[in-house]
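name: query_chain
kind: protein
chains: 1
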Amino acid sequence: MNRRSFMNHLLVSLSAGFCAGLGATTYVTKASRSNGVLNPGSDETCLTPEFMARVASSSGSLPDSLTLTGSRLPKNAFLDLMAIEVKRTTNQQVYVYGGGCDDAVLAVRARKAHIGNLCCPIPGSPAHDMYWLPIAQDVKAVVVHPDNPVDNISLSDLQDVAKGRIRNWIELGGHDRPVALVVHDHCPTYFEPVRELLLAGIAPWSSVGINATTDEDHLQQIARFPTAIGVNSWVLVEPYVRQGRLKIVTLDGISPSPSNATAGAYPLTGPFNMIFSHWNESLMRPFFDYIFSEEGSKIISRMAVPIDRTKAINTGNAPDYARLA
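structure:
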């Protein structure tokens, strides 16, 4: 079953159980994405906090094999490879489906997945009342078109670009051309650390910014326009940089590497978290143990920043896992 089939099955199950009683206003068009809503026909969905708060855990049966769904960033970065390695070393079958943070919350609450993957913080999110563990840190990269002569900007200048205060590349050491900020403001109802850092939690994105509808659209627009700039996950940026379609811009002279983020030298990072509602000792503990193992940390460190098991337990809320860890 692919991701689209999985989510279609999930949404059908939800509508049969409790969505029907929520009214038509739960679903709105992509034009209202800035308010944080669900577009049922989209590959990337956002749900209002009010809707998520009304979704109760289902009493159905979880899948027989360990099933994960949610943000495709950790899936692409390391979970797919981990699933292969766990199968090879322990013969445990692990299914990993991609999607978004809302997919994770819906699937776990509806008991269609054991674990949900989020690329946003848990406190204050629609998953705030669920069990969770941080598993890694994502690194966000500032990227421009390869022909752009600018190789480095300061965090302060990036904040001014985000807010629309800097609108010409000449202010950043480039040519006398307008700055084309490309923004993919995914799931704006979630707290997002980089958005918070760049906009101070109160300012809107630049009024002259270009809105992208998906991560692919975001990166392709930056790759297409010589004056474009944007920020996205290193997980998604890396192939574009490797192919010469995008160029990394260092931030105050620091490159967006996992090692620099680990050392605290690079500020643009975000969390990779896992959520769950029901603990299955035999399925879930071995997988979490692998995530926090030396081998698991090596896999994570290729594209992200691993987190120590003790720190993860002390930061998150997973009493069943902590009990015997």
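note: The chain has 13 helices and eleven strands.
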